[in-house]
């Protein structure tokens, strides 16, 4: 093997090794890169190939160091220099060094001002850094230079949406789909944007067109089904979810939505992976979205806490555990009351990051709430679960866990959505069911009996409107439970 490899000319080695790395055939590329190292040790070409190979194999520090050496050996300020800076930027992005990556991307633009990929890399790094106003012109210029490049257009649409121009983002994705109609990621991005805008009719139309064109995956059908379900077209939604299940049989997100549509037996709770995917995907716009729906739960919680402070004549009530804290909306409404310190628990890193930015919580913990209740030994005078149990069907185990984590006399405040009269996926007649929107509904009688069986006294169990969807109230049960 060595004799055969060494008989190949260096130029041919570079060409073959580069093609293998680009095609993902890293194992086959290794001996060729090693052979080039013997023929041209410490050369720009060898360092570049060695860096690309290390990058493909996840050896990120080695990759960055190899590109350092290559850049140090070249005085090129044109395309070659730009390409090397782009490669080093890639390694730094993966290492989490965004400022360093931005510097490399800027150097790439300086080396080759007309190079679209350099502008796209710079725009992408600035986007990751949250510098949206700076990212926009970079990505717009990259997309103008290569109007058929789907990744440039998709990144541009992300920036436009985050800057609040959803119409421009939708138009950009439409141009991208027209230019590259076979790209399923673009189709999914367009559907997701329509769902975020709550334009379910547009999302359904995009999903239907993707289905007709045959440019679909499990994600496409899952979002298509969600749009149809939101339009109350439940039979069609069930068919879309069934197609999603065929393409992604092990995907917890798809399996939950199929169960919600009545396509299979529903579980006792939503899979943590499903909940994490849902909330990580909307964490950056979650507060605005809920406020736009007339979300009432934090205010209801505040009323109970304020009353408890008055009745008990306590100067401070706490510590308080906010289970499923999300972006911290409960913390916000309690912040001016003598309550705390507050601990928030959530399984979505994106939501926890938003909660952390508010500076209200003394502690934020990334955990599934069932796991937290089973493993954290602390007891609390107050526990809040605002819109958390809509992802649980059976409540007996979790209520038992909650009681064990309350101090004697402690209070637990929780909400559930009311069980509809005709849910499409009944799981326990007259008790709880998984609704078409992927959330569980519960009967008041079930909440009351399960709470009593878990050892709670019920201070309040009242019907309340939790929020509004499609201009219709979403009815729920607001419960105040006490450990005697």
Q: Could you give a quick summary of the protein structure above?
A:
This protein has 484 residues and is α/β, with parallel strands linked by helices. The protein has 24 helices and 10 strands.
Protein described:
This protein has helices at 2-6, 10-22, 26-39, 44-56, 60-73, 79-94, 98-111, 116-128, 132-145, 150-162, 166-179, 184-196, 200-213, 218-230, 234-247, 252-260, 272-280, 286-292, 297-312, 329-334, 349-358, 369-375, 396-404, 444-453, and strands spanning 320-323, 342-346, 363-366, 380-385, 406-418, 425-428, 432-434, 440-442, 457-469, 472-482. With 484 residues, it is α/β, with parallel strands linked by helices. Among the domains are: 181-265, Serine Threonine Protein Phosphatase 5, Tetratricopeptide repeat, CATH 1.25.40.10; 280-482, Vaccinia Virus protein VP39 (Rossmann fold, 3-Layer(aba) Sandwich), CATH 3.40.50.150. Strands 1, 2, 3, 4, 5, 6, 7, 8, 9 and 10 form a ten-stranded mixed sheet that branches. A hairpin with a 2-residue loop joins β9 and β10. The longest helix has 16 residues, at 79-94. The protein is elongated and about 85 Å long. The N and C termini lie far apart (79 Å).
């Amino acid at each position: 093997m060595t004799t055969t490899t060494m008989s190949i000319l260096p130029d041919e080695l570079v060409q073959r090794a580069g093609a293998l790395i680009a095609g993902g055939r890293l194992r086959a590329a290794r001996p060729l890169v090693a052979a080039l190292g013997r023929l041209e040790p410490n050369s720009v070409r060898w360092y570049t190939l060695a860096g690309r190979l290390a990058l493909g194999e996840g050896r990120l520090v080695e990759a960055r160091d190899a590109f350092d050496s290559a850049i140090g050996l070249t005085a090129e300020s044109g395309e070659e220099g730009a390409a090397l800076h782009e490669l080093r930027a890639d390694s730094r992005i993966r290492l989490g060094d965004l400022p360093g990556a931005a510097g490399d991307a800027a150097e790439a633009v300086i080396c080759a001002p007309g190079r679209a990929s350099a502008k796209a890399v710079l725009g992408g790094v600035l986007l990751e850094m949250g510098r949206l106003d700076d990212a926009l012109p970079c990505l717009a210029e990259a997309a103008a230079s290569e109007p058929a490049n789907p990744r440039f257009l998709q990144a541009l649409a992300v920036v436009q949406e985050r800057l609040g121009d959803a119409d421009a983002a939708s138009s950009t994705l439409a141009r991208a789909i027209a230019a590259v109609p076979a790209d399923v990621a673009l189709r999914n991005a367009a559907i997701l944007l329509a769902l975020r805008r709550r334009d379910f009719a547009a999302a359904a139309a995009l999903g239907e067109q993707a289905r007709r064109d045959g440019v679909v995956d499990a994600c496409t059908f899952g979002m298509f089904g969600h749009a149809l379900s939101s339009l109350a077209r439940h039979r069609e939604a069930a068919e879309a979810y069934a197609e999603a299940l065929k393409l992604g049989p092990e995907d917890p997100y798809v399996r939950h939505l199929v169960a919600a549509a009545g396509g299979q037996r529903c579980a006792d709770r939503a899979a943590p992976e499903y909940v994490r995917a849902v909330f990580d995907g909307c964490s950056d716009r979650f507060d605005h979205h809920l406020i736009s729906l007339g979300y009432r739960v934090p205010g209801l919680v505040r009323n109970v806490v304020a009353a408890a402070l008055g009745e008990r004549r306590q100067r401070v009530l706490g510590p308080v555990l906010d289970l499923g804290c999300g972006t911290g909306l409960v913390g916000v409404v309690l912040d001016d009351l003598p309550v705390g310190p507050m601990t928030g628990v959530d399984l979505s890193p994106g939501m926890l990051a938003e909660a952390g930015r508010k500076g209200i919580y003394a502690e934020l913990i990334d955990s599934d709430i069932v796991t937290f209740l089973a493993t954290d030994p602390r007891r609390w005078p107050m526990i809040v679960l605002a819109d958390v149990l809509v992802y649980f069907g059976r409540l007996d185990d979790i209520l038992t866990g909650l009681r064990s984590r309350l101090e004697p006399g402690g209070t637990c405040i929780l909400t559930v959505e009311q069980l509809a009269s005709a849910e499409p996926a009944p799981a326990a007649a007259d008790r709880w069911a998984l609704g078409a929107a992927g959330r569980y509904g519960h009967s008041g009688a079930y909440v009351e009996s399960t709470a009593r069986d878990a050892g709670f006294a019920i201070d309040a169990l009242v019907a309340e409107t939790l929020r509004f969807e499609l201009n219709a109230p979403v009815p729920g049960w607001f419960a105040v439970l006490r450990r005697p």
